[in-house]
Amino acid sequence: xxxxxxxxxxxxxxxxxxxxxxxxxxxxxxxxxxxxxxxxxxxxxxxxxxxxxxxxxxxxxxxxxxxxxxxxxxxxxxxxxxxxxxxxxxxxxxxxxxxxxxxxxxxxxxxxxxxxxxxxxxxxxxxxxxxxxxxxxxxxxxxxxxxxxxxxxxxxxxxxxxxxxxxxxxxxxxxxxxxxxxxxxxxxxxxxxxxxxxxxxxxxxxxxxxxxxxxxxxxxxxxxxxxxxxxxxxxxxxxxxxxxxxxxxxxxxxxxxxxxxxxxxxxxx
Amino acid sequence: xxxxxxxxxxxxxxxxxxxxxxxxxxxxxxxxxxxxxxxxxxxxxxxxxxxxxxxxxxxxxxxxxxxxxxxxxxxxxxxxxxxxxxxxxxxxxxxxxxxxxxxxxxxxxxxxxxxxxxxxxxxxxxxxxxxxxxxxxxxxxxxxxxxxxxxxxxxxxxxxxxxxxxxxxxxxxxxxxxxxxxxxxxxxxxxxxxxxxxxxxxxxxxxxxxxxxxxxxxxxxxxxxxxxxxxxxxxxxxxxxxxxxxxxxxxxxxxxxxxxxxxxxxxxxxxxxxxxxxxxxxxxxxxxxxxxxxxxxxxxxxxxxxxxxxxxxxxxxxxxxxxxxxxxxxxxxxxxxxxxxxxxxxxxxxxxxxxxxxxx
Lengths: 269, 360
Fold this sequence. Notes:
- The structure holds 2 protein chains of 2 kinds.
- Chain A is of the alpha/beta class.
- Chain A has 12 helices and 9 strands.
- Chain A is globular and about 80 Å long.
- Chain B has 11 helices and 13 strands.
- Chain B has helices spanning 32-38, 44-50, 75-98, 124-132, 150-164, 188-196, 252-259, 261-270, 288-298, 306-315, 322-333; strands at residues 17-24, 29-31, 57-59, 110-115, 139-144, 170-177, 199-207, 219-227, 235-240, 243-248, 280-283, 341-348, 352-359.
- The two termini of chain B are 18 Å apart.
């Protein structure tokens, strides 16, 4: 794996771990990190020897959030950097790998935005979350779009509008996290989670995730067309063919039906 | 900013460019509800096909109702309508395409006309040449009966001409008078066709010239076809009441969906580019199901397909002209950057999937 200025990327088998790594800045997200993450995601998209991406922090902290040092007072701030960030986020959200966010320590602002992009989200018990942006005077990115889908509108308002800090247990009960572990068992549980997951059907996973993401914004009539197209693709996969081959022989069922038919006919007579 | 795409080393910098596009439709526009009313259609199955919601309006050449009823058109009337309509909207599309370039029909060196909705001899090019005043030594070709995919087959012809004849202008005209291939016989199959297709024409000019830049239009870089011979009968003309009537197999969207990745992988793979490097997708507005099938098999979003969906909604399926309507919408909406890339996809009888790669 390549070297990045703001990330530590390692690969073990078909699992790639991406660690946010700016120890001097508590992993604050600057433009360089956005570009680095985009590059990793591009590489992973094309890598056919990777099934899982684990996204996590380093040195006991996930991320302190966006690095305001990247904004300069010399010129009016423009929206394009933030647009790059959102584009990269969307790429993570739609990556053709299973994505797992692992949170240790603080997970603030942009850090939590990253967590919301992942297929699975786990944390150690003492992890702390916060979207402080509104309280500070700006917006928590497209978490404004994603958060309510996890937690419902009421809780999303509470989290976004007050900028309150909340603990892993709360995040778990609201549906932001899937599981919370004691720090000592975190690595083992992560490994177990991955082991259970593999092998996975990447194409089908991608289709299912896309449909789930679209489910909030579609009419039934629009959605079912997409579903049928996706399902058609799924049932033509090698994986589905294997399933049919492994299924118990159809003769039995056929016998039952013909027997039933026969009895029907005999009753008619 | 990082460059959006690796450079296409295999392609010479100078390639034919699409310089302009023009489109036209018949003056009369109908909603699906109006059409059901004209034809006094009461069958709920047919009504629900028309009112599926993916098409709201279509432009059509339809006869004047007599006593509130649509009169039946004879075969001869349908053929007449095809020629009359072709001359009207064909020449409008050509004029709209040539005017911004300061060109007149007289300046065109090669004219290629496409149609799958009527058969003429002499071909449409001869009629258009007479009607609009092209040069007597203009090269010409008529492509007939290839169906919805034919626009890219025609684009291949004009691109090849332009490539071989630098500085000369090649004109592609897609003219589809689908209302000249309508049969109303209360049959579900013909109802599907009658609910879907609309009338329209589109024209583009292609030229290769070293003085042209990306601001003049995209270069047509490469093509990749894909034909599925096993599905040759899936889309075809048949005869209903001695009239040509188009037949669409219900599995078509899925057959296209299953195969569409093949030509796209070859086309992009050849140039070492990925789907994510393509900024613009121009897909034939075949119908809701086939658009869904392409979306989920290529991983394209509704945003990627917005022009395709919009053209279907406002015009119906314009057969070979559809994708150029999408292209025109894209031009009107987008501010392009140098090296932006587009992929065109059309699909039709054969069963055939045609693709093209463009770069600004």
